[in-house]
Structures are given as C-alpha cells and as structure tokens.
Amino acid sequence: MTEREYDVVIIGSGAGGGTVAKELAPLAKSGARIAVLEWGPRFREEEFTGREIEMAARLYHEGGGVLTKDGAMTLAFGKAYGGSTVVYTGTSLVVRPDTVARWGVKGLDHADLARRSAKYMAENNVHLIPEEDQNENNRLFRDACRRLSWRVEQFPVNVKGCRGSGLCNLGCPNAAKQGTHRVQLPQAESAGVEVITNCKVERIEDRAVLARVAPCRFGFPSAWEPGEHRVKARFVVVCGGAVNTCALLLRSNLPARLPVLGKWLTTHPALILVAEHPRPITNFHGHPKSYYCDHFTESRRFLLETCMYFPFMTAKSMCGFGAPHEAMMRRFDRLQMILSLAIDPAREHNAVGINAAGEPVVDYTLADDVLNSLLESMRAAARIFFEAGAVRVHAPATERFAIERADRERIDDLVVRKWLRPGRVSISAAHLMGGARMGAGPDDSVTNEWGEVHGLPWLFVGDSALFPRCAEINPYLTIMALADRVAERVTRRLSAPGGR
Amino acid sequence: MNERLFLAVAGRIVPGVGSLDAAGRQAFLALVREFMESKPPALRRQIDLFLSLIRWLPLARHLRPFEALSPERQDAVLLGFQESRLLLLRRGFWGLKALAFMGYYGRPVAAAAVGWRPEREGNRRLHP
After folding, report:
1. Domains recognised in chain A with CATH numbers
2. How many domains does chain B have?
3. pTM to 2 decimals?
4. A297 Cβ neighbours under 8 A, 6+ residues apart
C-alpha cells in the first residue's frame, strides 16, 4: 500500500467536487497539497462516440440503470472526470426562494445561493440558446404550453460552441458542454491541484482515506499506479454524489453520532413520455432541452421539460411491447418527447444504505402522492402533445398502448391511476438529492449549513447529498453554489493559524 | 442464459428480432451477453430463473411450454407478467423487456434503421 499525504482530499469531481477543487486552487498555488480522487476515467475526446450502449456503459454507474431496492425505479448518475456534469444537458437554473425557505436551514439563505449561482453562470458560459438553434421538439412544447396558457420558460444552458449533436447525455462529442470537466477541473489542475482518476475511495478513516486505483480499458491512465493507497489529509471533502457519498460515509463507520446518515433521500422520480406526429419533426438534431413548464410546481408538484433520448432509452421507457411499440419506434423522426419529474417530499425512510459488501442500496418507495403527481404530469403532457399536433400519445398509465387524437378529450378517463403501477411503468431518476442533509444538529441532519459533518471538523460533504429536501428544479447549479460555500469554509480553516 | 428461449421471448417483445439475419442475431446476442457478463452472478441467476418461469408457467394452463405456444398465446403470457398484481413479476418482465430492447435497438444499424442518425453538426439540419 502506498502512503501519501495532502492538505485536502476531495472525493469526486462532478458539480460538487469540481467546484470545490477550483475554489481551493488559490491555496494550491500558494503551496497547499490538494488532490481530487475520481472513481471514473478521464475520457479522450475521440472516445465520445455517441454510440448509446457503449457510452452509457462507460459513463454511468451500471450503464445508468442502478435499480432501487424494490426494483421499481432506475437511477442514473455519472462516473467520469467531471462526474455527472459530463452527461447532463447543461441546464443551469437558480434555486427558487420558496424552495430554500422550505429547506429551513438556519444560516442558509436564498440571496447567498443566488449570488454564488450567478458566479458559476458567468464562469460556465450559461446562456439561452437562440431561437434559430432550437429544434421542433422544443418549439412545439413551448408553443403548445403558451396556447394552453401554462407558464413555460427557457432553460439557460452552459454550452460554448454547441453544434447541436443532441448527444449531451452520452457526453458531448464537440466539447461544447461546460461541465466541471471543461471549466473548474482544468483551472484547478493548472493551479497545482492533482486529479487522480480511476480511483475509488473505499473508506474514510480519521483524517485519511483508503483508495484503490484500478486500470481502465479507456480514457487516460490514472496519475497513480494501480493498487491501494492510504492518503492522509487535514481535510476531506466528500463529493461522490448523493448515493456514493452516503454509501462511503456509511461504510466508514465514522466516530460520530450520525443517526440520519443516508436518510431523507429525494430523487425527482421521472417519466419519459412520447408522442407521434403526422410528419417528421426535427427532434434529435439540436440541443435536446430548451424549455420547461413549471406551471404545476405548487399545485400538482410536478415539472415538465423537453427532452430527446436515444433508441434503447426510448424503447425501455415506453410501457408495452410488440407491434404497436415497434411501430412507434420506427417513426423515431416523428417523435416528440417530454420528461416529467415529480417534486417528491423528503421522507426519512427513503434512504441510501449499504449491503454486506459496503456497496450502496437505495431504498426508495414510490409513495401515493408521488405517483399521483406523475399521473397528473402524464395527463398534462398528453394535452401538450395533442395541442402540438401529435396524432397519438403514449401515456404509460393507460390500458392501451397509445391514445389516438380522436380520444384527446378523454385523457382524464384514459390515463388513470390503476395503470400506473411501479414495475409496469418505467420510472427513472437522475436528480439524486439528500442523505447527508444540512441542518442544525445530528438528530435531523448530517452536516451543518457549511457542509461540515457534525462532530468531525475535518470532514465535509460538498455535493447534492447536502440537500435537506429536493431542489424542485434541475439541481446542478445549486450543487455548485453549495459546494462553493463548503470550499469557502475549508479555505478559512486551512488559512487559519495552524490550519496547515 | 437459455439464448434460444430468450430469442423466442424477445421476438414477441420486438417483432423485428424474429426477422434478424444471422449476423443481426449474433450482434443482438453479443450485446445481451456483454450485459450479462457485466452483472453479478446473483442477478444473472435471477434473469435465468425469470426466463424459466416464463417458459414453464404456461404448462399449467396450456400444457405446453412458452416456445410451443401460438404467438397470440405467447403475447397473452407476457401481458400477464406485465399486468401482474405482483411487483416482483412486473419488474422481472420489465427487466427482460429492457434486455431485449437493448440487444435490438442498441445495435447501431437498428438505431439508424428507425431513423436516429445524430450528427456532430446537428444544428445544420435545423436551418438548411
């Protein structure tokens, strides 16, 4: 086992870890030793092939299909230099004031998060895609929402030189998406922060981590030789994403009382909804995600977003099988897609645990209120599709495969709760939040409002695990804002007399 | 995995599986095999067990295993799993369906055949 020593070890390099690394970079410049340990590889540009199965297997944990304990939902989260920022669509929204108020964390206010979010919007080139570069899949959604008098907004996205490959979720082949792999991590590295890829942290000990570097068939080789490494650090910042952060903390048997560690997980359970138009539309060319409808956020607790997925992902998202399914798939260039997300309440029993091998097990129950939100979202999406001109809509919570246009006035009769059964309908989640929530004390939280783990002043959490409740919007910019706070606190500690 | 049986089930899930030529069938099975090999033995056993269940469950009602049933009856058996009251059976069928879709639509040639032909310069297609 190789022994190493750093001032700060950051575990994970996504929206949280990449941000912390970049914010600590000035310290590295002035001599502090800082390392980022990333489980996934750093891909070469030519390795972003856009081939669905190949890229999903390489970029996501379990190909993007991590199952919850009851097998009723799949979870997608990235594993790469840049974490999930390599595979998201770049949507960058500032968390809403009422959401932060609902979180109810003393010492954490909306103005602070908005200020920090604005910094990353500027840093990561967040802007609106111009009208001429929006495809019909997006514009049909926007126009239909407007005709229905439903509030619809454009997503600001963090791209630079987007050429519209539409492959965001498989890693941009044009290096356009400005995730932490393009912005924060290279900045940190140029200041002297070391990024070690293919490096899985097995356990955290008192001011040290045990990590294992394994060779990988693709990407650049790791900076460290394969094998076990014990890395001492004055401060450890865990940013492995909600699932892996919690699992790592749980299997580390930390010397602190953390009764809610892993608990209060939220996921924004989601459905991919599909409709067919009578003619080909531009759908998979161009950026896939330009608009969202938050008209029902407060009243029905769901969000609708434009999306465009790939053939396998689309096929498995639809309920049913056989000829009708295949017929709709064959008309791929006529398909319009909407992603609906339930704004799920935080519940203590929804939790990340670990199995005997220390690997994460996500126990998440799709409660009735969440399923009802998804049902309502399906009905709303069906109305949007028909308003946009679709000839048939695949709404999974129906008895038949598709609702024909002639039946569009009967949506509420056809899309019913009876058919929305977990396991029958494909439900997935990519916004994993909570499990190491911020709060006042260990009885109801894992960290304080600065991400410092209760009772362990050398250990911080700096990612979406911090969320006390769900973000109610796409969470990446909020993760960066929270990570920015964590980095500020670590900087202060390191800069204090005796800090180094 | 009993690949012959899986092909029979997959052929009802995606009818196109039944008309694959030898090369297409090999490409389909290669993706499925690769997936199976990447999974822990316990999951592989579950998939095998579920396939066996699909094969033998019809015996009680139709006195024949799945692959000896008419296409209509095969569909009815699969529909029974999809609509089952038991989450265990619904999710098992969902998993099998996903495996069939992956093998079929995961082949670049099939993705292109349904019309999905992404281009690095996709925006050019938006303003011809």
Report:
1. 2-125+166-265+433-495 (3.50.50.60), 131-155+270-343+367-421 (3.30.410)
2. 1
3. 0.96
4. A303, A343, A472
